[in-house]
Amino acid sequence: MSLGDFVAFVGYLGMLAWPMIAIGWVANLIQRGAASMKRINEIMKVPPEIAQPERSRMPQEIRGEIVFKSVSFGYEKSEILREINLHIKPGQTVAIVGRTGSGKTTLVNLLTRLFDPTFGTVLIDGIPTTEWDLEKLRAEIGMVPQDAFLFSTTVERNIAFGRGNARREEVEKVSGIAQIDKDVADFVNGYETRVGERGLTLSGGQKGRVTLARALIRDPRILILDDALAAVDTHTEEEILN
Questions:
Q1: At what angle do helices 234-241 and 204-216 cross, to 10 degrees?
Q2: Is residue 225 a contact partner of residue 144, using CB atoms and an 8 Å limit?
Q3: What angle do CA 36, 37, 38 make, to 5 degrees?
Q4: pTM, entire model
Q5: Which among 141, 145, 146 is positioned nearest to 124, based on CA atoms?
Q6: Is 3 buried (19+), middle (13-18) or exposed (0-12) by CB count in 10 A?
Q7: What is the pLDDT of residues 13-68, one digit of tens each?
Q8: Which of 96, 207, 107 is nearest to 158 (CA)?
Q9: In the chain, what are the domains?
């Protein structure tokens, strides 16, 4: 073997080293992916507990009347709500007060049908929520949760997420109602300001008000504030409620 042949052999050997290593790496990746996909498929095959009714019913006119009839609910063996009877008329404002863990958020989750009651019936406009079309039911409810979640995009897009085709004028209008417009005006880029992952660049009160504006832009028949103004000062809270 000449010196040139030896140099060429070593060069080719070096060129083959990485592809051979890559084959082993890819084979390992495929095996891990197959195992993960198997676990995902097991979850996807589980039928949802909250299912779309076979024959949904809708009122001719959605007014927003809410009725809880002898509603009880519990997690596993722990009963959270017992024999709840509640009637909220359209346009009425109701405050539900209770200690931490008393079931206030659970009550809201039953209304949006994240859960179904163990006993009793929840009705909206005289129709049990179990008979409503799920998508239409939740489209009529605007909810501002305790934990405000924002996407890593602009303020405008976070607000308009409630209704994808919202115009800038509509975004500004609901921002004024939620008392976030003055804060946005102080931002260098205004409504084009990016808020970071989960609203990292905003304060707790600002995140709550952006989430409120997102709910308002949908113009829902039922608006739920689940301790949404906890991080807002009393003056701003009064302005929002007025």
A1: 10
A2: yes
A3: 90
A4: 0.69
A5: 141
A6: exposed
A7: 777 777 778 888 888 889 889 999 999 999 988 888 887 888 888 887 788 889 99
A8: 207
A9: 66-139 (3.40.50.300), 155-241 (3.40.50.300)
Chain length of the chain: 242
Amino acid at 167: R
